[in-house]
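Worked example 2:
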Amino acid sequence: MVRSRSALTTGGSIAAAVVFSLVLQAIGLLPVVLSDQYDVAYRFTAHAGSDAPKTAPSYFELEGQGFECQWFGVPSQPLARNADPSAYDVRCTTVDTDGQGLRRLEAALKRSGWGTASSGIEMDMQRRASAGWVLLSISAFILMALVLARATSEGWGWSSLARLRWRVVPLLLTPLFSAAAVVFIGSLWIGGQAPGQAAPLAGGMAGSMAGAPLFYLMPLAAALPEEAMFRGWLHERLFGRLPVWLAYLLIAELFLLLHLGLVAAVFSGGASAAVAVVQAAGVFCISLALTWVRRRSGSLGLCVLAHAISNLGAMAMVLAG
């Protein structure tokens, strides 16, 4: 009878963690899903008309919408024999709120004396995070963390950090190093599968992270409720009731479930399936490392800091990619 009650309690804890993960994902998506603004990138080949200026303009504006443009000299792809030898590869970016950006860009180019090649203009759109919804989501993260902290009996005090002394630094960096090792090994594996064509491990996430500067705080704020749930509330309910190795794996699998949206975004952003697999392995290993830090240090606050540092490293990789 005691065993069945324990199993029911464990199953209920896992189910609660699944529901929490889905709710957290929904809150994290609000700033992007509910936004009516888009970050748009245009790529095309442009050639100078007879009245074009000698210097290619880096900024166009029409009807209040601005376009930041980069010109890359002779196109990377060979031009047709009768093409204009003064053609350039161009990449322009803008924020579009009404879907008229392409029309305005074409008109602005024509007004400035530039024309586009017959291949036309390629367009890549990503929703731009809304600052108001970002603040609301971060507030919800903090509120969820406070509720879970009250249900977690230990690990939040400064005393647990003070006891660690010099061990704080290596414990903080362990999850980041584990993720870096997975990324390095994964890069070698991906590169071996398709030499010269390995996609950045960040995939297409740079676009989805663009938008309101506050959006970059989202992964840092998310570390609070995630650690309160997985290394706090769930940790206390699984360890001691299950074999240690099984508790490690269950927490890591549930943590991966929470981040499947990120893995899917990497894959849908143009990265190969191998890149998505490496991304998933990295998330899984970070969870194992964070749980190890929790058990080694006894400090949930340290886990939050380590998680935030790992997220910072991931964001740096996204921006670099």
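The first helix runs from residue 2 to 33. Residues 75-82, 194-211 have pLDDT under 50 and may be disordered.
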